[in-house]
Write a structure and sequence with these properties.
With 410 residues, the protein is α+β, with helices and mostly antiparallel strands. The protein has eleven helices and 14 strands. Strand 13 and strand 14 form a beta hairpin.
Length: 410
């Protein structure tokens, strides 16, 4: 008995689509019984719990579905009877084109705005940029919750990375709302040329070299929130290299997906896991304030000890050997406070600058005593005394900055 190759393609397609949805954290369920135009359903998972929110899938596999294409999309044509069923379905419906040879799945939402009618049939544009991957998490949320779509973002920072042979910029983008995968790509395509034509220069040297010239290289890092930027947890990163760039100055490529106009994108598959970890390990404001107050207060008598001991040395009341032994006796106590006082969870977002100043304060205290831990044995007296004096001054400045930031948020 013959087994049609089309049936084989269909099975491979369903397995491929299922595996890719499972990989990004969805529950995939094939609908094998009474198939009326829906091949499977996926269920969104929220906080590791099945949400009960479903999306219907129509899966098309095999080379025949990729014959009609444009530069940035494939064209799917279907029968009117299927279209009516999908448009009237109680769930959001995705049409998925599965390239089983390359294990790439493209998708589009079946909604009236995406449908184009022909004389006898209808067609829908399936963007090549819309693939099943970690970048479509927001799309899934919007599909199950019917969220509206807006374009809203902020370029939070721009850095001039230019060298003699290439004008280069790096920029960070914060999304001010949840963006779909396609919306993120739209933002990237909009921002890349804007950054490429930037006239910010980090110095007069780069300004002289590159004034009034477009950049040859642009790197973008996209963050769903300001907290993600603080934690260096991007949803994707992109690169754009101008065709005019001299090959001698071509940097290493991220080898990402080409989304057009020489822009390559790499989606961060660990974004959700890192985001969850950060959320679970961020301290409450009350807990953070209480903890840093305790350790900063413990640092004060140790700092006072260091100042008084150094003054006794300066007044020739004690010699260097006695100073060394006195500091050495305190090192274990200082080191214990430093380690316990800096091995905290993440600070609340509103306390970010306070956290930075607190860490600087504790680091200065540790640096005063570090030369008496054994690493200073090969240093001479003058070098050790200079460093102690230097870090005592640094501690005083760090304490002032810490107190200013503390008053802002406490």
């Amino acid at each position: 008995m013959k087994y049609p190759s089309s049936s084989n393609s269909e099975r491979i397609g369903i397995y491929t689509v299922g595996a890719q949805f499972e990989r990004i954290g969805c529950i995939f369920r094939e609908q094998a019984i009474v198939d009326c135009g829906i091949d499977a359903q996926i269920e969104a998972v929220e906080d590791e719990n099945a949400s009960g929110k479903l999306i219907a899938l129509q899966i098309k596999s095999g080379a025949s579905y990729f014959k009609e294409e444009k530069d940035d999309a494939f064209i799917y044509r279907g029968k009117l009877e299927h279209l009516s069923y999908w448009l009237e379905h109680s769930l959001s419906v995705l049409i998925i084109l599965c390239d089983i040879d390359n294990e790439v799945c493209y998708w589009q939402t079946v909604i009236p705005q995406n449908v184009k009618y022909t004389q006898k049939q209808w067609k829908i544009i399936v963007p090549k940029a819309q693939r099943i991957n970690s970048g479509m998490v927001t799309d899934l949320k919007r599909l199950v919750n019917k969220m509206p779509s807006y374009d809203n973002y902020t370029i939070s920072s721009t850095s001039d990375k230019s060298i003699r042979g290439a004008k280069r910029y790096s920029a960070s983008i914060i999304l001010n709302k949840e963006h779909t995968q396609l919306e993120i790509i739209h933002v990237i395509k909009k921002v890349t040329p804007e950054i490429a034509n930037c006239e910010y220069h980090r110095s007069n040297i780069t300004k002289t070299l590159w004034r009034d010239q477009p950049a040859q290289i642009v790197w973008l890092y996209v963050y769903p929130s300001a907290e993600d930027e603080r934690n260096c947890n991007h949803i994707c990163q992109t690169e754009w290299f101008s065709e005019a760039l001299d090959n001698d100055y071509l940097p290493y490529s991220n080898n990402g997906e080409n989304i057009g106009s020489n822009v390559r994108i790499v989606w961060n598959d660990s974004y959700l896991a890192v985001s969850k970890f950060n959320s679970e390990n961020t301290m409450t404001k009350g807990g953070f304030i209480e903890t840093i107050t305790k350790f900063s207060n413990q640092s004060l008598p140790l700092f006072d000890f260091s100042e008084k001991t150094l003054k006794n040395y300066d007044d020739k009341k004690i010699g260097f050997n006695e100073l060394y032994d006195n500091f050495k006796d305190k090192f274990d106590e200082v080191n214990d406070i430093y380690l316990k006082g800096t091995e905290l969870g993440l600070s609340p977002f509103e306390c970010e600058e306070l956290s930075n100043q607190y860490c600087g304060l504790m680091s200065c205290l540790h640096s005063i005593f570090i030369f008496f831990s054994g690493i200073g044995e090969k240093r001479g007296e003058s070098n050790i005394i200079w460093n102690v004096r230097h870090f005592i001054d640094d501690y005083k400045q760090a304490k002032l900055k810490f107190e200013i930031e503390f008053k802002k948020v406490a």
